[in-house]
Amino acid sequence: MVNVVKRITGILAALFAVGLFAGCGAGEETSLNSMKVENYVTLGDYKNLQISVEKSAVSDEACDQLLLAVYQSNVTSENGGIVDRPVAEGDLVNIDYVGMKDGVPFGNGTAYGDNLEIGSGSFIPGFEAGLVGAMPGETRELNLTFPEDYKNNPDLAGQAVVFSVKVNFIQPEAEDLKDSVVAAFNINNVADLKGLRQYVYDYLDKNAEQQYIYSMQDAIIEKLTKESVIGELPETYVDNYRQIYRDRINKIALNMNTTPDMYTNYYFGMNSEDYAYLYGEVQARQELLLQAIANREGWAVKDEELDALIDDYALQNGYPSGEELEKEIPREQLRNFFMSERVMGHLVDIARGSSQGAE
């Protein structure tokens, strides 16, 4: 069963949650900032939240894996790539290739700087085996035939093709890493393997902290929803959120070249209208709860500060101005977003303080 209480997390998800991509013109009755939300909600005790969420520790294994991935993504033929021995089974090789049928390159058959593990079976039969023994810098012409049941491009199924493949270098493994190679990566404040390890640890720790915050937000929303009482809401207000979800589903389905019902049935076990109807109301109720807390605590976004918040957000997200941002995202929906993030920030601080005090 899908957990419909979980709060949508992340910047884009939060933008979506408050309707920033809906393009709906909310009237006074449906605008959170102008609604008398206290008429619809009796808040639970949000000041004494007892939330039990643990931050995941960063493991040595995770650091090792990411360090190797960062190292390999930065090496070149001139810096760190292995170029003094032939390709062997099991090697991860960096290659350029062009696939041609009757002398003409075919779609999705060309790549540059691609990493391929020899023996992984990632490419069609004969491709990987044809590179065994090649020296870095060497180009090989591979005369191959696509499988008869090749489904990624049915036009190529059973067809004879030629791949021109250049082996750029062999990727180093964990035992091959060198301080001197790291020094040439031009990563800020990273000059050796020790510095690179700290760099990836900091990244993983920051990610763990963000996931911890998201988990705290989910737990807070779940607790508030259970402990608060929400009456019958204006239908026009709830319908706005349902339309947001319909628009989102349609857009995702279009990008995935599928139908809205196929998308929601696969991921959520329900048709698209049921999904929009259910999640739209859940999100409408959650936003109402947050607005009620904002009003009570003085955390609502006032008119005199909204312009500055919009300008700052526009600058951080690549918009030339706040005015340009408002052409894409309605002003009141931006206000709701800033309110939501502000309230959740305060509630996370309260919950963290409560959990630390209980230890």
Walk me through what this model shows:
There is one protein chain. The chain has 359 residues and is an alpha+beta fold. 47% of the residues lie in helices and 13% in strands. The protein has helices spanning 11-17, 60-74, 179-183, 193-227, 235-255, 260-268, 272-297, 303-316, 322-328, 331-358, and strands at 41-42, 92-101, 104-117, 139-145, 160-170, 229-230. A four-stranded antiparallel sheet has the order 3-2-5-4, with no helix packed on it. Strands 1-6 form a two-stranded antiparallel ribbon. Helix 5 crosses helix 6 (260-268), helix 7 packs across helix 10 (331-358) and helix 8 (303-316) crosses helix 9.
Question: What is this structure's SSE topology?
Answer:
Elements: H1 11-17, E1 41-42, H2 60-74, E2 92-101, E3 104-117, E4 139-145, E5 160-170, H3 179-183, H4 193-227, E6 229-230, H5 235-255, H6 260-268, H7 272-297, H8 303-316, H9 322-328, H10 331-358
Antiparallel strand pairs: 1-6, 2-3, 2-5, 4-5
Helix pairs in contact: 2-4, 4-10, 5-6, 5-7, 7-10, 8-9
Short recap of the structure:
By secondary structure, the chain is an alpha+beta fold. The protein has 10 helices and 6 strands; from the N terminus they run αβαββββααβαααααα.
